[in-house]
Amino acid sequence: MMIAFYITSAITILSTLLVITRKNALHALLFMIISLLSLSIIFYLLGSPFIAALEIIIYAGAIMVLFVFVIMMLNLGRASVNQEKEWLSGKIWIGPAVLAAILLAELIWVIAVHEDIPVSPAVSTPKEVGMKLFGPYLIGVELAAMLLIAGIIGAYHLGKKKKVVYHRFMKGGTK
Amino acid sequence: MTPIPMDHGLLLAAILFAIGLTGALFRRNLIFLLLSVEIMLNAAGLAFVVAGARWGEPDGQVMFIFILTMASVEVAIGLALIVRIYHIFKSIDSDSADKMKG
């Protein structure tokens, strides 16, 4: 279990590093899917199989497909890869990497000061999660529902084409 | 079967968060920016699940479900904005949209 955890962690970190360094957006998405799948294995090892399933179904299944859909709709081909090469050339990444490394070092220092506490081996079933979700956290579920409806309306409003109206008597077609 | 130490799970979350932060800082492509934000949200969710697993309670998983909902809404809005920006500026460079009312 320990060994599986460390191997999967290594795969997650490696594929996530590959995500942010790819030049082709589609390749980055494929590495992101690997990262999500290995993270889902980690969730399974941590005793939450329901979250592991949700990670695959919603993240790798729905959100990544949305990304692929937009990339194909924008038709970003060879030209955008060349542009990425231009943007990523030079030492542009050193500053952000150093800042993030300092933050990471602080986080590691904060986490590593106390002794090792093992996670509990108990596996929580979907039923327990559902009882919590619709019991003490019911207000959160309702807020999430409001957020989702706001998201749907917002995405529809942003995505629709505007009609060009020259005058209220001569309504032009879409441009 | 030895259990996983909690610190190592939290360390993995911290490393993933740092990688996502680096990506969000140095990429100029808006799609990669959104992907980096996804990585960071995932890392935060992992920290919640690890903390929940430490006590053997499902509360961490409940928080992960909320984060998942928020991430999907954020991606829907973000991608709609990216399509809009691409139609207006013909580019998905984040610097192309640096002027308001431009």
Explain this structure.
The complex is a heterodimer of chains A (175) and B (102). The mean pLDDT of chain A is 86. Chain A contains seven helices and no strands. By secondary structure, chain A is mainly alpha-helical. In chain B, helix 1 runs antiparallel to helix 2 and helix 2 runs antiparallel to helix 3. With 102 residues, chain B is mostly helical. Chain B is elongated, with a radius of gyration of 17 Å. Chains A and B meet through helix 1, helix 2, helix 3, helix 4 and helix 5 of A and helix 1, helix 2 and helix 3 of B.
SSE layout:
The complex is a heterodimer of chains A (175) and B (102).
Chain A: H1 2-21, H2 25-45, H3 49-74, H4 78-88, H5 94-112, H6 126-133, H7 138-159
Chain B: H1 6-26, H2 30-55, H3 59-89
Q: What's the count of strands of chain A?
A: 0
Largest interface: A-B, 83 and 71 residues
- Looking at the structure, what is the overall shape of chain B? elongated
Assembly classification: heterodimer
Low-confidence stretches of chain B: none
Q: What is the H-and-E element order of chain A?
A: HHHHHHH
Please state the structural category of chain B.
Answer: mainly alpha
Class by SSE composition of chain A: mainly alpha
Main beta-sheet annotation of chain B: none
Strand content of chain B: under 5%
Q: What's the main sheet of chain A like?
A: none
**Head-to-tail CA distance between termini of chain B:** 61 Å
Radius of gyration of chain A: 22 Å
Q: Report the mean per-residue pLDDT of chain A as an integer.
A: 86
